[in-house]
Design a protein that fits this description.
The complex is a heterodimer of chains A (282) and B (248). Chain A contains ten helices and eleven strands. Chain A has a six-stranded mixed sheet with strand order 7-8-9-3-10-11, sandwiched between helices. In chain A, strands 1, 2, 4, 5 and 6 form a five-stranded antiparallel sheet that branches. Chain A is of the alpha/beta class and 282 residues long. The model of chain A has no long low-confidence stretch (mean pLDDT 89). Chain A has a domain of 145 residues: P-loop containing nucleotide triphosphate hydrolases (Rossmann fold, 3-Layer(aba) Sandwich), CATH 3.40.50.300. In chain B, the strands form two sheets. A six-stranded mixed sheet of chain B has the order 6-7-8-3-9-10, with helices on both faces. Chain B has a four-stranded antiparallel sheet with strand order 2-1-4-5, covered by helices on one side. In chain B, α4 packs parallel to α6, α5 crosses α6 and α6 packs parallel to α7. The mean pLDDT of chain B is 90. The chains are: A alpha/beta (282), B alpha/beta (248). At the A-B interface, α8, α9 and α10 of A face α7, α8, α9 and α10 of B.
């Protein structure tokens, strides 16, 4: 665990629950971690609560969700207690989020140039002219070389990889110190995926940034992240350095690794995960 | 079992006419599993759709079990030669039909007898309990839905299965169950598989041989051993392989 003093975000006993028809179901059941200037992978299968954890940090859960935590501290502030207008200033400004599919995150009826310019004007309070030149710089930073040509395009006219880089350009307008990336490369082709990951690395090299990298892809997280948390049924069952993922001890993590087809370790038959009810509690 | 000679696949008309597959030649032996890998837009699914008869705007030669098929509508016997399993099992099964009705549909179309019994056997074979036949797709999980798609594809006992990203929408733990099922079925029934995937690790696990597609061309063919050891000629194939290792 990262030393508390270095933590950008510190979470203790995060719980997210939904109640419907008198029944309460807990989607996140006591998640605790600290994230410093590092790439922290959060791995889990569908329904494990990994996305819910990311959204809880952004306070972007539907109003039906009940979020509690012993501590949800970001740069010395308690995010849970922050009034919504202040939270809105944190969101996008100090904590940014990238989602899987840029097609759903970008405004479909506004060209991408105007979207970046708008972001610059809101967050940096720039004039339209300054915002435009800032937008061009940002596009270059995410390796879009012909920014002039790209700015007038609408989201449906750009490829997935281009869309994701535009999202990143908008995200870094305000220099966030924490980035929540929820499956940021899952919808991308592998050649583009590498490019997006390199851009994230370049940004982190410029200033200390915590990256919470939510993914289902064990091979990717193993290579890209510094540390990994494994989530199962709303809890973190194991935490370890990413390059030691193969030494995982929890039977769920072991099961996942055995079930994964691997080029570097071919086997005749994949193992089938046998879920143990005891994992629910640890 | 499948021979393709100079296959070109087109979309659109007039000045918008686009050549998605630009002269692909390959052949797949009986009992073999052949993997077509590539990124979106490489033409891998277009090859599969031309073989399946889902897309008709193509030129070249396709021979299935040594008999030629054309782009025109196929006979019932030709159709019964192959079946497809799609990526998204929710989109592939009718949401308002029960599981049993979905599996029975190809049997009805082909007027096969003893359909009740057949559905029961198929469900059992893909590892689903018999009472599942009364369920609707939304009442079962993604992995179970993919088992239903496989059961349906097996219904006519077609000797060839075309697998279009069959596990890309599934979690790792569910993926292993479905891949194991596909391997068992292949051995048991001497099936021939053509699998389209973007995931080299899955392809290396399942396939005897692979073809790498890029921009409508088949740029390289390799054996499983070559793929595993990294003995590939094209830099692009290497790049795909490294991505599957998590590098990149």
């Amino acid at each position: 665990m990262t030393d508390m003093t270095n933590a950008i975000l510190s979470l203790r006993d995060l719980r997210v629950s939904f109640s419907s028809m008198g029944r309460v179901s807990e989607a996140v059941r006591g998640v605790s971690f600290d994230i410093g200037n590092e790439k922290l992978g959060l791995i889990g299968e569908s329904g494990s609560g990994k996305s819910m954890t990311g959204r809880a940090v952004m306070r972007l859960l539907p109003s039906a969700a009940r979020v509690t935590a012993e501590r949800m501290q970001f740069q010395g502030r308690d995010l849970l207690q922050l009034p919504e207008p202040e939270m809105r200033a944190v969101r996008g400004h100090e904590i940014a989020m990238i989602l899987q599919d840029p097609k759903f995150s970008l405004n479909p009826v506004m060209n991408v140039g105007d979207q970046i310019i708008e972001t610059c004007r809101i967050h940096l309070k720039l004039s339209r002219r300054d915002a435009r030149s800032r937008a061009m710089e940002l596009l270059e930073k995410v390796h879009i070389r012909d920014a002039e040509r790209v700015m007038p395009l609408y989201p449906h006219e750009v490829s997935g990889g281009m869309g994701q880089r535009i999202m990143i350009a908008m995200m870094i307008v305000a220099r966030p110190s924490l980035i929540v990336a929820d499956e940021p490369t899952s919808a991308l082709d592998v050649s583009v995926r590498g490019q997006v990951l390199r851009i994230l690395d370049e940004l982190r090299a410029e200033q200390p940034t915590g990256l919470l990298f939510i993914s289902h892809d064990l091979n990717l997280v193993r290579r890209f992240c510094d540390r990994v948390l494994i989530m199962y049924a709303g809890r973190i069952v194991e935490a370890l350095p990413a390059d030691r993922l193969d030494d995982a001890e929890h039977p769920y993590t072991r099961g996942l690794l055995e079930a994964l087809p691997r080029l570097d370790r071919p086997r005749k038959r994949l193992a089938v995960l046998k879920r143990d009810p005891a994992w629910m509690e640890g | 079992m499948i021979e393709i000679d100079n296959l070109r696949v087109f979309y659109g008309a007039g000045s918008d006419r686009f050549e998605a597959v630009r002269g692909v030649t390959l052949s797949i032996r009986r009992g073999e599993t052949y993997g077509l890998v590539g990124e979106s837009g490489s033409g891998k699914s277009s090859v599969l759709n031309a073989i399946a008869g889902r897309h008709t705007d193509w030129t070249g030669h396709i021979r299935i079990n040594a008999s030629s098929v054309g782009p025109a509508r196929r006979s019932r016997a030709e159709k019964a030669m192959l079946q497809i399993v799609f990526q998204d099992p929710y989109g592939a099964i009718h949401p308002k039909h029960t599981v049993g009705a979905s599996i029975a549909e190809p049997l009805e179309i082909h007027r096969r007898p003893d359909r009740e019994k057949a559905v029961e056997r198929l469900l059992e074979r893909v590892g689903l309990p018999p009472q599942f036949r009364y369920r609707f797709p939304h009442q079962i999980s993604g992995g179970q839905r993919q088992r239903v798609s496989i059961a349906r594809a097996l219904a006519l006992e077609a000797p060839i299965l075309l697998l279009d990203e069959p596990t890309s929408a599934l979690d790792v733990s569910v993926q292993s169950e479905v891949l194991n099922l596909l391997q068992d079925l292949k051995e048991e029934r001497d099936l021939t598989y053509l699998m389209v995937s973007h995931d080299m690790a899955v392809v290396a696990h399942m396939c005897d041989r692979i073809g790498v597609m890029q921009g409508g061309d088949l740029i390289e063919e390799a054996s499983r051993e070559q793929l595993i050891s990294g003995n590939l000629e094209q830099p692009y194939s290497q790049e795909l392989r490294e991505a599957a290792l998590g590098l990149a």
